[in-house]
Amino acid sequence: MNVPSAALARVGSALSGVPAVRMCASISSAHNLVVNGWVRSVPDSRRLEEYLVGVP
Fold it and tell me: Superkingdom of the source (predicted)?
């Protein structure tokens, strides 16, 4: 993901409450946020992707 640096703390906080998110890390790269998630099905992965797109 590419998140503005000023929003990293807010986005990280929002992701910490998502049960499927297992790890979230800020990195130095063109895309500065890595999110690992564990899901049980394809529909679950779609829901997680939809949530990630809409994180405030």
Answer: Bacteria
Furthest CA-CA distance within the chain: 33
* Total domains, the chain: 1
Residue range of the domain that includes 40: 5-53
In order, the DSSP letters of 28-54 are SSSS-EEEEE--SSHHHHHHHHHHHHT
| Angle at 55 (CA atoms; ends 6, 19), nearest 5 degrees | 115
Q: pLDDT at residue 55 above 80?
A: no
- pTM equals 0.73
Q: Are 18 and 48 in contact (CB under 8 A)?
A: yes
